[in-house]
Amino acid sequence: MKKWKYLTMTAVMGSALMLGACGKDDATQNGSTGDTSTQETAGQESADKKLQGAVAGDGSSTVAPIIEAVVEEYAGAQPDVKVSVGVSGTGGGFEKFIAGETDFSNASRPIKDEEKAKLDEAGIAFTELALAYDGLSVVVNPENDWAKDLTVDQLKKIWIEDGTEKKWSDIDPSWPAEKIVFYSPGTDSGTYDYFDEVILDGADLAKTATLSEDDNMLVQGVAGDKNAIGFFGYAYYLENKDKLAIVKIDGVEPTGDTIQSGEYKPLSRPLFTYVKNSAMKDNAAAYDFIKYTIENAGAMADAVGYVALPEEKYQEALTTLEGLK
Questions:
Q1: Quick check: 33 and 186 in contact, CB under 8 A?
Q2: CA dist 115 to 99, 132, 200, 253, Å?
Q3: Which of 65, 85, 93, 218 could form a disulfide with 58 if both were Cys (CB 3.0 to 4.6 A apart)?
Q4: Where are the alpha helices (DSSP H) in the chain?
């Protein structure tokens, strides 16, 4: 798997490889998805149409590997478009989206009702676009040879705060009588929100947990402590699988197949970007970047370790996006 740096980035590179997916939208509008020559011609026309401008986004660190990969490739197609994408977490990204600071907001969970209400108050109309599937991955240190397969109930017992100093032996008497060390995404993270919803059921997370919006810090923490446990997006596990051990949940390991099928439950989930409708209409560079993102999201998801949506879902998203122009 190609390594992508999960950082806030500004794309100003003058060259990058072009993906063969350019021109899908044009081909679809012409009523043909199987005519290779038409797609290639449309793709060439898109490459020849140079744009200038700026596009701003923010949001989920889980979605960041996909978007950064897209940004790097897009720089080759449109070198005069400046794309800046922050990684302040799903919640932090929505705060900037509501404040009118960004054209799009990446999210590892659906937008909340209160966030919708604030956008409505701000007069910002938006559209949700799905990008890929993820399997929220629970990981332990490779030296941990006991917690290889956990039930959902055990996850709850491990992670929910109950006022005690938890040891592994509290979960299973045959496990070591060593304190559990917790690493979790921060509270602005959509991954935290999703885990809260499906595992914590709204209860408090273990108060001794180290929280960070930087998933790479969580990786380092788990990799450095035999008694550590953490969770984050599947791509971050794949990127660091040489220093982490994946945990099965109710006997199911997250893989591309189990994530897409939903067998890896309840931790399979879609990943999104939310676009500002006015930006898609008034900012040609923003529209073009999001169109490029949808056209290439499946390939980029596969490249960085997530799972592509069915192709028809991307075509539906392109049709939706076209309607905003």
A1: no
A2: 11, 22, 22, 33
A3: 93
A4: 24-29, 36-48, 64-77, 89-98, 113-121, 152-159, 168-171, 190-195, 215-223, 234-239, 256-261, 277-282, 284-304, 311-322
- Distance from C-alpha of 75 to C-alpha of 82, rounded to nearest angstrom: 8
153's tokens: 């109930």
In a domain, 285, yes or no: yes
Show Cβ contacts of residue 299 under 8 Å, excluding neighbours closer than 6 positions.
19, 21, 308
* Single pTM value for the model: 0.78
* 116 and 128, same domain (yes or no): yes
* Residue range 167-188, pLDDT digits in tens: 999 999 999 999 999 999 999 8
120: number of Cβ within 10 Å? 12
Q: What are phi and psi of 130, to 5 degrees?
A: -80, 145
Do residues 166 and 203 both lie within one domain? yes
What residue numbers bound the domain in which 56 lies?
9-133+271-322
- Do 56 and 114 fall into the same domain? yes
The whole-angstrom separation of Cα 298 and Cα 231 is 24
Query: What residue type is 138 in one-letter code?
Result: V
Q: Which two three-digit tokens encode residue 159?
A: 């992670």
Q: What digits encode the pLDDT tens for the residues 255-274?
A: 999 998 999 999 999 999 99
In angstroms, the CA 181 to CA 16 distance is: 42
Give the pLDDT confidence score for residue 49 in this predicted structure: 76
Give dist(CA 169, CA 180) in Å, integer: 9
Residue-by-residue DSSP string for 52-97: -EEEEEEE-TTTHHHHHHHHHHHHHH-TTEEEEE--SHHHHHHHHH
Token code pair at residue 29 = 């509008």
Q: Is the pLDDT of residue 27 over 70?
A: no
Tens-digit pLDDT profile for residues 4-19: 433 333 333 332 333 3
Q: Rounded to 5 degrees, what are φ and ψ at 105?
A: -135, 120
What is the CA angle 87-186-296, rounded to 5? 35
In 3D, which of 106, 26, 28 has the Cα closest to residue 69?
106
